[in-house]
Amino acid sequence: MNKRRFLFSIFGVFALFVLVAVFSFSGNSNASSMTVEERIEAYAVKTKLSKEEQMGDYQFDKAHSTIGFKIRHMGLVDVPGAFRKFDGVINFDAKKAKNSKVEFTAEMKSVDTGINARDNHLRSKDFFEVQKYPEMSFKSTKVKKKGKRYIVTGDLTMKGVTKQVRIPMRMYGPIKDGRGTIRMGVTGQTVINRRAFNVNYGSNLPNGTPMLSDNVVVDLQIESVKKKPKQAKK
Amino acid sequence: MKKVILTIVFALIGGAFLFGTDSLDAKKISIEEKFGNSTVVAESGAYKFDVAHSAIGFKVKHMGLVDVPGYFTEFSGTVNYNADDVTKSSVEFSAKTASVDTRVARRDNHLRSADFFDAEKFPEITFKSKKVEKSGDTLNVTGDFTLRGVTKTMTIPVKVAGFASGRGGSKVMGATAETMFDRTAFGVDYGAKSGAIGKDVKVILNIEAKK
Q: Can you tell me the ipTM of this complex?
């Protein structure tokens, strides 16, 4: 009996080693992104605020938000860009999610892809025509909670064209930071066809692949800060 | 008896993990078969990173909420692609730490300081591959990654997006990769302890390279 027990514990130790090895192996690959997600969840739960505290208007924190996009070049890789100047507000209703609202604007000439010459080209008539259409805007018309996600439908206006788009979003927080500021994170990704907004520039490669894809991935990483109630004037 | 049950549970979990990875590999292979239909054939040779269409960037979580991205605007790199035996390929690249761009000038200056990159003392981040292994449609590229004077072995799972012929017949290849590392292992600790600035750094590599 003792011998059997000994054998089992040896096996147990071995099984543990296998587990540790598998875990540390997966830690090196993509699986590690999951652990980060879990960590965020844990973080959010620890700092849970009451619904009253969560509710209200949240102003986009410009330093920590990104209104970005990605476009595929030659069918190969995604070239990213973002707008440097933007503003937005999330009105979060913690009790009735569908009453929440999101709206933002971005200054088209603030486009930034890391290459000056390209940014200038994007500002021109070939793309955004920023002198005539200085702003892009989004205004939600419907918010639907679906599990952990929020499906936000709204009007996206760019280059004078308004189209309805659906952006699935996820919310992190709200949390209270060390200074007592209430912050929330909202991420969203959707795909739009740039031709629907009259952005038609680009030719095809000899094999028919477009130089610049029609589809543009819109990537929103929004951190916003709850506005403090205005002090009544005395 | 308790011990025995525990052991069996551990063994089962371990087994499930092993089988789990097996079925994942099977999926990858079928993707690769589809990928094989690409019209432009891969060609061996040295491909230089096309700075205008490549991104060497990173993402760091702020207060556990959202990813804040940053990029290096100055970098260079070469892929030595071996079409006959892809595991004999190699890649190396370097990025200028002073060229960091997170779209907030004040933050970029802070990143250049000794709190983060210490750009004056450590002007470059480098990666140099030592080994390439194929696993389904992923190339696991293992090499030396140097940041702030600290060199560590890193494995980057790379997906070759394909090859294309540009105007004038020039060959172009695309490759993307994402990986993650703990910045504190390289002595970049600022803000990590409080959790305000994530210690895990997501690496984004969107590389278009020209022969």
A: 0.74
